[in-house]
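Contributing: when you submit paired examples, paste them exactly as shown. First protein:
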Amino acid sequence: MNKLEKPMKLIEPEYEEVKFTIPGEPKGKQRPRVVSKGGFARAYTPKETVNYENLVALSYQVQVGEKKIHGPIDATIIAYFSIPNSISNKKKEMLKTETIPHIKKPDIDNIVKAISDGCNKIAFDDDSQIYNLTASKYYSENPRVEVILKTQKET
């Protein structure tokens, strides 16, 4: 760069952030079930999945309101699972720090799918708006899922 050129300024976009918490044990999206009746196969979503997706939608509406996010979304989903009763007190104390990864079922992708489907038409128009996703699972005395949705502010 010569002395006459000005350095380029990078303009950092401003972000809007929406946070909400889904209380209780995290649930993963279950596979659709298929039943055959009268020679026709019909697929349906299991009741437990429907109930959890409704809890996700309700949690968003109660904590955030009617605000719908438009545009690309950067999502962070952190699932906290109950500490099992069957482990030693020493290990329980470690798990209470909420830093020990949960590496059992449900799979993280199924948790993400249940939450993103529960947010469809409520928090955003479609989960295809999510362009970046960070998801993790930990143990906690307070089982829940914390969701952070960020998008660029409209100017």
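Second protein:
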Amino acid sequence: MPELLEQRLHVLIVIEILGRPADFIEKALEGVVEKLAQEKNVEVKDKKFYPVKPIKKLFSVFAEIELLCTLKKLIEIVFDYMPSSVEIIEPAELRLNFNDANNLINDLAARLHQYDALGKRLRIEKSILERQLIQAKIKPVTIQMQEQLQKQMQARQARHAQVQAGQEKQAGQAQAGQEKKEEKEKIRKRKKRKNK
């Protein structure tokens, strides 16, 4: 029996992209699947693309990819491509010895350390950029701030629409009142003429 980490697995993964515009995410998904197919020690057996679907203000598209790879490579794929679903089709059973388990866990730990270092670096760079913006007297805008501004704009637009509707109603009532007043004046003049 071959070493577990070198044994070929038959796997089905689902890769999903969420974003906009629709045609962009469709092309992006095709590019991701093509890149996956070119990975060393990966054999893509089949791929199926599903149509783009709207989700709120964004679009979602996904593909099912059936492939052959080793367990070690599958873990790399999970980290690099972040599939939304992974299903090992074959073999039905995997046996893990201590040597394979140690190698697998060490590879996993090394990958997690890389992501941790990247996250720390990005936080430091963000902090530096924010400081530079403040020094340049430019207020940094976060995603949360953008969302709050968007909500405020929507609330203002709703209030403006209400005020405008109220003004139109008042104008309509004023016009109706003026027309009623003019009608009463006409009736009064007619009565006055009749009395003469």
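If you have annotations for the second protein, write them as plain sentences, like these:
The CA atoms of residues 10 and 174 lie 77 Å apart.
The mean pLDDT is 85.
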